[in-house]
Protein: Aspartate aminotransferase
Organism: Dipteronia dyeriana
Amino acid sequence: VFASVVRAPEDPILGVTVAYNKDTSPNKLNLGVGAYRTEEGKPLVLNVVRKAEQHLVNDQSQIKEYLPIVGLADFNKLSAKLIFGADSPAIQQNRVTTVQCLSGTGSLRVGAEFLARHYHQLTIYIPTPTWGNHPKIFNLAGLSVKTYRYYDPATRGLNFQGLLEDLGAAPSGAIVLLHACAHNPTGVDPTLEQWEQIRQLMRSKGLLPFFDSAYQGFASGNLDADAQPVRTFVADGGECLAAQSYAKNMGLYGERVGALSIVCKTQDVASRVESQLKLVIRPMYSNPPIHGASIVATILKDGNMYNEWTVELKAMADRIISMRQQLYDALSAKGTPGDWSHIIKQIGMFTFTGLNSEQVVFMTKEYHIYMTSDGRISMAGLSSKTVPHLTDAIHAAVTR
Ligand code: PMP
């Protein structure tokens, strides 16, 4: 009965790793994967995560019962504090509802499903370019997806004018997806002054902000600094949604731990919104898994573990920043034609190199270097040892 099923293409991002795994060259290099690697190219489990897990194993009160539909209560409270700030008036006034979801993706999907059922304007604006899963998540939830200009290939920076024009022309009430920090794939973020202009424009038009926060702490190494754009939107008293992921900043990729928060006008509205979120979640997966959320809650509520986490997080962010500098220096030393300063200006896990899809194909074929076809490379996949190989490949690609 399934004989007529046609083969689907590989996922454009995860498919890069599939191709990498098939390559038998000893020099192969995977810069496609959006996951942190050590200087030795190995995945990293944070020490503080191991410690929290040990703590959970030793605690006999830890059981494996179902969590409530909305997840672990402590985890939800602490997650809201992490993104909105401990002193957030919205939290103090109990007008935020937070539900534990399946990492960032699940949080976006639950938020989108809620909006499709209960919000009056079903159009969402996403930046061009954006993370490839965004349009699929929102389309499948039943929202109509439109785009706003974001990246300017000429400057390899923000097209701020285009962004303001497109959001200015959006219908009143439209939803706007904003990357909270470390925009994926471009590594280009607005400055705080630009965020303030975006906020004013969006509030004046009643546009609804939906923040995707997948990299808090990864952009600057500082959790509060990276949450600043979200906090300025919450500080004005207006509504917003925020999807948080602990995949990158705690290295909990496969634990699938994240949270969706909806900031409402009043406590009463927030509690009604939460009651509807439960109706979205229950038929999707009933309730979320307990282990990852317990790890996060253990770390966030213990002062010492929290501090240890921030040190390990900063070390990851700093290694990425140092890779940017090393790659930039190596290209400059080699005299590779072109301005490569965007490598050190962009932030977060990725560099949007500006290499085109033909150059990417060439680098994969001749140098066994894997990346997405838009020229995005994961700086976290690079090390001091592999910088020269990548430099040679980029040089060859642009001088061909
Ligand atoms: N949003 C963005 C912008 C991302 O880059 C990612 C991870 N690649 C996610 C959301 C979601 O990731 P996860 O579901 O693993 O938390």
Q: What stands out?
A: The mean pLDDT is 96. The first helix runs from residue 14 to 22. The domain at 14-44+318-393 is CATH 3.90.1150.10 (Aspartate Aminotransferase, domain 1). The pocket of 4'-deoxy-4'-aminopyridoxal-5'-phosphate is lined by residues 34, 103-105, 131, 179, 184, 212, 214, 245, 247, 258 (CB under 6 Å).
